[in-house]
Amino acid sequence: MTNCVAEIDLRGRTGTADDEVMDLAETLRPGQSLRLVSLQLPRLLLHRLHERLPGHLYVGLLETAADRVRLHLERRAPGAPASSRDFLSWDHRRLERLLTEATDEVKQGLEHARARFEELSCALDRHVATEELLLFPMLSPSAEADGLSSEHAWLAAQRRRLRGTLDGGDALRFAREGSALAGALAAHHHREERSLYGVADSTLDEAARERMLVDLQTL
Ligand SMILES: [Fe+2]
Ligand SMILES: [Fe+2]
Question: Is 141's pLDDT higher than 80?
Fold first, then answer.
């Protein structure tokens, strides 16, 4: 990702590494990002970052493996105040970009596409899990929540199919089916931004809204 200024591996580092991350995060310009690698989700560090830079930083997951978690931290562009809707919409654009990169990079080889596809899979699983855990209960029971939940199951099935295409080594089919999935994903995102995210921001008081925004990025 072109705007990434550094990747910091926190594994095996002492507590001062957290201060280094905090100082670096403070220097990021809007749109710039940094990557963090740690043994597990660095929740304490993320809470400290949100306290020091409230509403200025968005955090997205890129990888979870037995020996590491990789995170993408991005300085928000100035504009509307941070909110659950704004954060989740930002995450939608990130997911869409990862899928587009996977289908574009397959031209350079299947392994290039696989790296982006794995990041997309991890990021999408995380995004969907937080929506189902934190947001859908606010809508439920409703047809809208049921419909969006069914779409999650359908998107997961399509993604498994796409992984099969990648594993089978069919680059052309991967590019074609990846583009079809990108269209379905964007349509799902559009529905959520139109009907779901406003609920989270409008039914909570200010303190609960702030808590939700942090929970979505640290749970
Ligand atoms: Fe969703
Ligand atoms: Fe979403």
Answer: no
